[in-house]
């Protein structure tokens, strides 16, 4: 993973997070006061945060149902595609427990922010919790073996991917596509150490575009997936992806010789033949 990546944990949001997509400042008024915050303030806070090195956090919001909003940005250059996710305190607890079991020696002295049962909507408590999680996430991110671990990456991506794949299996391709596009933007930030991990999501996006008859877009994402599989002809996605790309080439009226050659090269290596179509393979993810 790129050393210049930054994770920023953030405010607590509602179960329905329509308003929590914008960073807010800690405010002493009622909930309605938060919803009246103008977008100029939110934009300015975002700019300030992206300029900070390492990890930084937005403020927490005082609401009854808590969720922390985490904003992931790529530092070192302007990141026009900021990723935003939401996690509960219990999600952080599960992550910490899993990581502690796997990396006990390295995490033995790492303090996890304690849960506060009373007075947890007071401004000073919110600020204290924000700073505690800021330090916690900064330390996690500083350890390469953690930030590149499957557990850490799943913590940041899995819930959104599960929802998107559920929509795909239900034939809600437009809704699935929205979630998958957001997820793959985040995955690109998190998996620079292993780009092949993006292949299932890229293929899922291809499937959605293809079923929506957006063949050009489907082809573009298929090319991205195929590039990551170039040195892995035995990968379970390789042959189904090649066959799908050939069908897209015919739809678009393009030259199919390149993909036919790739197919022949694979057959010459006598690798196992595929059993599933690309769509059949894709819908089995995150079941």
UniProtKB/TrEMBL annotation:
<keyword id="KW-0813">Transport</keyword>
<keyword id="KW-0967">Endosome</keyword>
<feature type="compositionally biased region" description="Polar residues">
    <location>
        <begin position="38"/>
        <end position="53"/>
    </location>
</feature>
<keyword id="KW-0472">Membrane</keyword>
<dbReference type="GO" id="GO:1901981">
    <property type="term" value="F:phosphatidylinositol phosphate binding"/>
</dbReference>
<dbReference type="InterPro" id="IPR001683">
    <property type="entry name" value="PX_dom"/>
</dbReference>
<feature type="compositionally biased region" description="Basic and acidic residues">
    <location>
        <begin position="19"/>
        <end position="31"/>
    </location>
</feature>
<dbReference type="GO" id="GO:0031901">
    <property type="term" value="C:early endosome membrane"/>
</dbReference>
<keyword id="KW-0653">Protein transport</keyword>
<protein>
    <submittedName>
        <fullName>Sorting nexin-20</fullName>
    </submittedName>
</protein>
<keyword id="KW-0446">Lipid-binding</keyword>
<feature type="region of interest" description="Disordered">
    <location>
        <begin position="1"/>
        <end position="53"/>
    </location>
</feature>
<feature type="domain" description="PX">
    <location>
        <begin position="39"/>
        <end position="163"/>
    </location>
</feature>
<dbReference type="GO" id="GO:0015031">
    <property type="term" value="P:protein transport"/>
</dbReference>
<dbReference type="InterPro" id="IPR036871">
    <property type="entry name" value="PX_dom_sf"/>
</dbReference>
<dbReference type="InterPro" id="IPR011990">
    <property type="entry name" value="TPR-like_helical_dom_sf"/>
</dbReference>
<dbReference type="Pfam" id="PF00787">
    <property type="entry name" value="PX"/>
</dbReference>
<dbReference type="InterPro" id="IPR039937">
    <property type="entry name" value="SNX20/SNX21"/>
</dbReference>
């Amino acid at each position: 993973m790129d050393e210049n990546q930054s994770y920023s944990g953030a405010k607590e949001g509602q179960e329905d997070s329509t308003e929590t997509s914008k960073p807010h400042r800690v405010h002493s008024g009622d909930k309605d006061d938060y919803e009246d915050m103008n977008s100029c303030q939110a934009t300015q806070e975002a700019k300030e945060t992206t300029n900070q090195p390492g990890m930084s956090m937005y403020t927490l919001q005082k609401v009854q149902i808590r969720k922390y909003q985490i904003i992931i940005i790529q530092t070192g250059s302007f990141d026009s595609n900021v990723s935003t996710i939401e996690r509960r305190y219990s999600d952080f607890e599960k992550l910490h427990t899993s990581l502690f079991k796997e990396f006990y020696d390295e995490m033995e002295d790492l303090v996890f922010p304690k849960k506060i049962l009373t007075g947890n909507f007071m401004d000073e408590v919110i600020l204290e919790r924000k700073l505690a999680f800021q330090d916690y996430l900064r330390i996690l991110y500083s350890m390469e073996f953690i930030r590149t671990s499957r557990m850490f990456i799943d913590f940041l991506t899995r819930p959104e991917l599960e929802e998107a794949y559920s929509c795909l299996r239900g034939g809600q391709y437009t809704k699935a596509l929205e979630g998958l596009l957001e997820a793959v933007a985040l995955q690109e930030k998190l998996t620079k150490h292993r780009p092949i991990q993006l292949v299932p999501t890229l293929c899922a996006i291809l499937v959605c575009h293809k079923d929506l008859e957006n063949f050009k877009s489907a082809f573009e994402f298929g090319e991205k997936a195929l590039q990551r599989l170039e040195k892995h002809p035995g990968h379970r996605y390789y042959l189904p992806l090649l066959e799908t790309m050939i069908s897209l080439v015919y739809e678009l009226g393009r030259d199919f010789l390149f993909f036919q050659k790739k197919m022949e090269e694979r057959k010459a290596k006598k690798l196992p033949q595929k059993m599933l179509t690309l769509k059949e393979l894709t819908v089995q993810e995150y079941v």
